[in-house]
Amino acid sequence: MVPEAEVRDVLVELQRLRARVPLLSGALAASTDGLVLAHDTPDVEAEGVAALTAAALGISIRMTDATGRGGFRELLVRGDNGYIATYAAGSSAVLTLLAEDRINVGRLHLEGRRAGARIGGLVDAALERTERPATARAAPPRPATPPGRTLPQRPT
Prior knowledge:
Blueprint: H1 4-20, E1 24-31, E2 36-40, H2 46-66, E3 74-79, E4 82-89, E5 93-100, H3 105-138
Antiparallel strand pairs: 1-2, 1-5, 3-4, 4-5
């Protein structure tokens, strides 16, 4: 789980994003398995959007794999009343933006990609810090070599 301090930083990033792009009606950061990390989504159920984002992400990843397009980067859905855009945010999170129909889609992508990169950096760094102590304790000790002997080398 992401520590509380980083969750606050993610929320601040979402709020700044909504302030920079006036036609955004909501912003949500979630884990790739559909758990809400932070959200600024008035009048929208964040938990439901996060769960649907995880489902759409699963399909998107399968589509990019099946068509040889590489790893998932973003998904754009257009409805009668606006857009839903989802961006990769590091290795374990996604950013979903809700935008009005009049939004400049180029600006949406520009701001969404930048915010996704920043949020991904925050989340990945936090997860790395929380996982590092556990893996450091679990690492086996290095074998000692007797004096005058070296470890065998593979031929090059």
